[in-house]
Every structure is written in C-alpha cells, then in structure tokens.
Design brief:
Helices cover 44% and strands 18% of the residues of chain A. By secondary structure, chain A is of the alpha/beta class. Chain A has a six-stranded mixed β-sheet with strand order 3-4-15-9-10-14, sandwiched between helices. In chain A, strands 1, 2, 11, 12 and 13 form a five-stranded antiparallel β-sheet that branches. A four-stranded parallel β-sheet of chain A has the order 7-6-5-8, with helices on both faces. The termini of chain A are far apart. Chain B has a single domain, classed as TIM Barrel, CATH 3.20.20. A nine-stranded parallel β-sheet of chain B has the order 5-4-3-2-1-9-8-7-6. The chains are: A alpha/beta, B alpha/beta.
Amino acid sequence: MTQVLEYPALTLPNYPQPDARGRYAEFGGRYVPETLIPALQELERCYLEAKNDPRYLEELDYYLRDFVGRPSILYYARNLTEKLGGAKIYFKREDLNHTGAHKINNTIGQALLARRMGKKRIIAETGAGQHGVATATACALFGLECVVYMGAEDIRRQSLNVFRMKLLGATVIEVTSGTSTLKDATNEAIRDWVTNVRDSFYILGSVVGPHPYPAMVRDFQSVIGEEIKKQLLEREGREIPDAVVACVGGGSNAIGVFAPFAYLPAEIRPKLYGTEAAGDGVETGRHAASVNGGKIGVLHGSKMYLLFDENGQIIPAHSVSAGLDYPGIGPEHSFYAQAGIAEYVPVTDAQALEAFQSFTRTEGIIPALETAHAIAFVHELAPTMQPDQIIVVNLSGRGDKDVTEVMRLLEKVEGISH
Amino acid sequence: MPTTLTQNRIQSAFDQAKLEGRAAFIGYLPAGYPSHNEYLQHAKTLLEHVDLLEVGMPYSDPLGDGPTIQKAGEKALQNGATISSMFESVKVLRSSSEKPLVIMTYYNPILAWGEARFMDDCVASGVDGLILPDLPPDEADTLRPLALERNIKLTFLIAPTSTPERIEIVALACTGFVYAVSVTGVTGARATGALHEVPAMLERARMHTTLPIAVGFGVSNRESAQAVADVADGVVVGSAFINTLERGGDLGALALEIKQGTRKPS
C-alpha cells in the first residue's frame, strides 16, 4: 500500500520496562481482584505484540498525524521569557491536539489495541473530562461502544466536557460513591471491568493502575518528549533542555515529557520538575500532593505515593483543577521521586489561578488549570537560570473547559467589589 | 479441647460441617456496621448460625464490592470504625466463641497499619485468617512469611476467568481455605442460576489442593445457598445480611433459613 510509504511507522520507544511483576523498584504491581489478572496478562501480551507489529505502528502513526494533528508545535514563549528574565522558555503545545489535550495520544493507542483484540465495548474513567472526551472521540472514530464514569462533583465542574462526550455518542455515568471525584470514578470503572471483563476493554487515562497500564500509557505519551528532542535539535542545536516542567496528577502528561530524558546519565539529564497540586497548601491537609504530602500505599492496583490516614483510608484529594484531583501519583513517578530522578514541587490553587490569568495575558494562550500549575512554577524557576539555558514546559491542555469554573472562583474571591 | 482445634479453627469448622452433612456456612459483616455496639450484637447473632465469620474492615475504596457493602462500609467509617475498634470487636467475639474469625479487607489498611503489626494484632485478638480481595498471591511476598510464622491462614480467590495456571498458583498459595468467586463481578446479592462456571473451576482447583473451597458472591437465600452447597465445601453470604438489616429484617431468621440451604444432597 502506498500509505505505508507516506506514513513511515513511528517506533514506540524502548525505555526500561518494569520488572516481570510490573515493578519500578518497589512501586507498581498488580493489586487487583483475581478476576482481572488473566485480562491484564492478555493485555500485556497483546500490547507487546502490537508494539512490535509494523502494521499496528503504521496505524498509530497515521492517526496521530492525520487525526490528532501531530507533531504538536514547540513554541518559544518570547514574552514570558523576557518578563521572567532568565532561561529561555519553550512550550510544547499539546493543547493544540485534536480534543485539546495530550490525552488523545493514549486513547488512540489503546482504542487501536482494543480493536485489534476484538473488544467492542470501551470503559473509561475521567476527572476533568479530557480523558473522557478523548476516549469518546477515539470510540466514535473506530465505532466502539463507550461508557465513561465521572464523579458527580466533576460533572458539575466540567459540564461542557460532559456534553461533548454525549455528543460523541458516549454514555456518561455519574458516580456518587465516596467523594464523587476521579478516584471514585476509577473505582466504578474497575468494578465495571471486573463485571464485563470478557467483552470490554478498559482505557485507563493515566500512568496509574495495574501493570501493564503505567508502562503502556507512558509509551503512548512519550511521543511528546520524543518530538521535543527533534524539535529542540532543529531550533537550538541540541536535543536536551536544561529543565523540563509538567503538572502531575496521576502523571500521564508529565511521564510523556520525562521518560525520554529520565534514563539518561545523571550528568546530561535535564532537571525534571513535576508540579503537584497543593490545593490550599500541603500544610493544610487540603491538597493533592502525593509525593510532598503522602506515603507509600496501594490504590487502583498499584503501589505508589498516596494520601491516606493511619487506618489506610484514602484521604480525599483537593485541587482547583479536576484533572489533578487524584490522591496518588503513578508508580514510575513514585520511583523517579524516590530515586531523585525527578523533583516534585507543590503549587497551590491560588498560585495556579494567578498563573492561569497572567499567562493568558502574557502569551495569548488560555492554559488548562492543570497546566497552570506547571506555569506557576516556571515563574519561580526561570529567573534562577541563565539566558543560555532552556526550559521546556508541557502545555498539556487548553483552558476553554475551565473558564466557567475560573469565572465562578474569581467572582467568589472578588465578590465584595461587585 | 484438642490442640489441633485451636491451631486450625478454619479446617475444623469445615470438617465439622461435613460431619453434619452440610457445606460450611460463612457469614460476612463489616465491623462497626452500622455502629460499634450494633455490630457486636449482629455478629453474635450470626455466630449462633454460621460456621465461620468474616469480619470486614471497612475501606474507603472497596473496588471489589458492590453498592450494598460499599454503603455499609461508608456507614461504619462515618460512625468511627477504625482498625483498633475492629480488633476490639474481634476480642469481644473471641471471648464468647471458638468459631473461626477471618478478617476481610483490602491491602492498604494493612500496609498503613504495618504488616507485621497487623499480624501481631491478629494473633493477640484471636483472628484465624485473612482474605484480601485486592492482594493476589503474586503480591503477597511480604505478607505470606509474616502470616506463616504466626499461623494466620491466608485465603486467596479464584474466579471464573482464572486460567488453569492461575488456579494452580492461587490454590497452592492458600493456607486456610480457597475462595471461589461465583461470577465475574463485584459482591452483591443476585438472582440464582449463574453458577454454571463453578463446578469446573472447583474441579480444577481440587487437582492442586485438599483445602476446603468456599463459593461466594451472589448467595442471598436458601435456594442460592443450596445451589452452592451442591458443589462446594462452603457457602459465603454477605450482602444479603446487610440488605436485611437495612430493611429492619430479622438477621437470625435469614441466617437460619440460609443454613438450611447448606445441607449437602444425600
């Protein structure tokens, strides 16, 4: 076929894999009901086969280019660079992908895998709704039935995304158990999968969950960082920036920009910064900062840094951003944190809201509230660096979905003057 | 009392039921549900009828449980259920019963408490075994030696989706009894008649273990208990008890009714 020549296959990367049990040092694993173990073994087998099948890779490459719009732009933020007066700041524009965030890189990969495995029904969880929209989009494209679980609180915060999913033909199921947010939506998605495991494929949206999900989602998202290397080489004559910054909830956009650099020798590895949602502040207990405010625990099938009390009960996460409102951080990030490969810094709601507004005016780009956490930290980082140094920030998603919530929050803060 | 009885109350309970021509009757109730004191009353009622009591430690994110047990667990947690109060309950129950008491919970509470500390508290309060639905044997490498040293029995689960290889791994890892999940799904009372996959699963497991095998998920009345008792060594009932308590029904009467269903076909 001529198409094969027009779209030479990308190779999915071969970063270090977790061990046979799905572990990154002590993190990861498969802490799930036995019912799911055979399905996870099958998924692992099929994924590894697909990863080495040129036909699968050609398909993936085709849809990433012609449907998602890859490669995404690496944008030099001149205004912000001049304003902060330090390192040169580049933004990787994942917000310009079809559906407006990085999530689609993964859902296309997994939906193609589901189709290859003959599964016709797709299950997904969603927080901010971006993964739900990206999953519903892939399902519309490939003619798959789509069921998305979403917490009642997030449905309120992200009503626009709920409607988008419905337009795309997905069934959105409101989750009212527990705290009615992402972790509970994930519980419900797993319960659905346990029940319908024989004919359903679970498209997990982050680098969390039981093996092989964290490694598989990492591989799909690493297209972001691999593109950065090529683009930076063209623009700056070098592949490796001095610092990489990304926001972290479960950690899928961050792993996409970290993994291509994380396993480089320490001498040439860029500084990798993950910004955790610190909510009202880590010291207040109302936050979603799993590394800075958590301990090693098990949730949703994986051992990772996690927020829980002395009885092992999960402490509800808090963040202004629905996409970061998750009490854990994926096992590979947990490993990076423990091994000192990446540093995880807390950013509060207030800092993120400030960055959301100022960045919009400085660069003419409305970022997602999630991404605003990364941008807030860049304000601290860039001035400490030299003009010949380079920061790459993953602009993981666009902020259209957040404007009503931000409007509500700003009216609340500035209510007296109205 | 012969030492073997105190050493392995679980095996004795299954043996005794067998002698009486029954499958063992296993009841589950979350500790602290609906409140600490009411739980103790209900658990004592169940202990009059069951051969083995599963003491649930409520958990915030019980991904193996259906709505009935989720809501009961939430209620218990709201009313102050903690790991300490669960062990207190076990001590009280142990002081008046020699029936096996097995804790059923998820792995994170045990990690949070400390695996060795949790096991020590099991011994001190008179717990006989543990069932952890989100801890397959592959992930039990740290817990298993701690349990073995203290003679705390471990029960792992097999499911209708389990391959022959998985059934062998699980059956060999169990030290108390084997728990076979009757359907693909979460816990909860269901209509009867979904047991067609169970006999083959049990037959496969029996190739690898002589331990008793109990079947759970979905048993809610005498008929469904009878269907399980026809093929298994034990019948597990949980959600049906909670549903009855939520309705203000008679727990003892339901337990008695289900127990009649555990009689083996002669």
